[in-house]
Amino acid sequence: MQKFTCGEQAAQYFEGLYGKKTLPQLKRYENLVRRFRKKYNADYCYLASSSGRVELIGNHTDHNGGKVAACAVNLDIVAAFLPADKVEISGDNYRDICFAPQEAKNVQGGSTGMVKGVMHALSSWGKNTGGFVACVSSVLPSGSGLSSSAAFQLLTAVVQNSLYNGGEVDAVTLAKAGQYAENVYFRKPCGLLDQAAIAIGGAVKADFSCGQFTSFDMGNLQPIVINTGKSHASLTQQYAAIPQEMAAVAAYFGKEKLCQVEEKDFFDAFREVVRHTGERPALRARHFFTENRRVEQFCDAAQRGHTQHMLQLLDESGESSRRDLQNCGSAKDAIVQALRFCKQTCPQCACRVHGGGFGGTVLAIAPPEHREALYNSAVEKFGAENVFRLTLRRRGATVL
User: Fold this and answer.
1) Number of CB atoms found within 10 A of residue 269's CB
2) What confidence tier does 4 reach under pLDDT thresholds 50, 70, 90?
3) pTM of the model
4) What positions does the domain GHMP kinase N-terminal occupy (predicted)?
């Protein structure tokens, strides 16, 4: 961690965060530092960045110990910060947060709860925590399926790690602190996917049955995410039903999670599972097992440079999410209509529901020669503020 001065000292980090076009980001950081200095009359400050993420393939499997391929992306939340005897955060996309560090154990919701939850998790695991003041700025749209909540949690985590732990806490532990905040303070029963992808950075294959994370090269794939305009803020119960129903199928086999059930045993007993648990839980479990296979095939295709096979697998994942996982809604649902639009506009593209589903966003990836046409058509249909052309971010959440 170094004192920040604009120019080469910061620019060396920026290509790994934002790609080649770093000048707009330098200006963004300069404005943030200016705000911080004015607010706190500070001669210097530290800087941190935490990105959004895209789930490429592996929809709703992490909470049952499944496999996921995901990547960090170039949209992020940044903070200018210094240590202090209180926690005070202000920003253009967040309500001001202020509390004493010893209050972190007091559970509450919202953005304040995310900060408290991360700090309490780290403290309860024997890590050091303390106060800080920060000005933040986000270009991650809230409620768009790019995990702005997890990005904010990991921003808090890397600030705590750098100020009070010498940067020695590993990325997975920081991710788990974010998940704890989401589960306990925000009361959303998420798995570890979002936080792990953001903490580690790059393109990552995650196997949540054993906690193994492996980087892979996703080639020249560039995701486009379309926000359908339907918020998922009120859909927690629908999300929660998916891991609960998958766990009910695991319980049929005397297990806690589906990752502990042999795939062959499940398919051999499929009809009995339907009779015992109901059709929807059985279909959601079928999605779990077929999606795990697709993740392995997707990463293998990426290693071999077989882009067309990768796109085919993404399409198959989308169809499985619609048919078996059932998180896309009816034919009139905004998600289904957006998927139909993508295929009608660009038959060569792969598209699928992104993230939790039910509301939110669609992921589309077109071959390079069709990418611009799909993007322009999506902007015309949904508006530029709802269409995000993303690139891979190679660094995880970090202090510059």
Assistant:
1) 17
2) very low
3) 0.89
4) 115-202
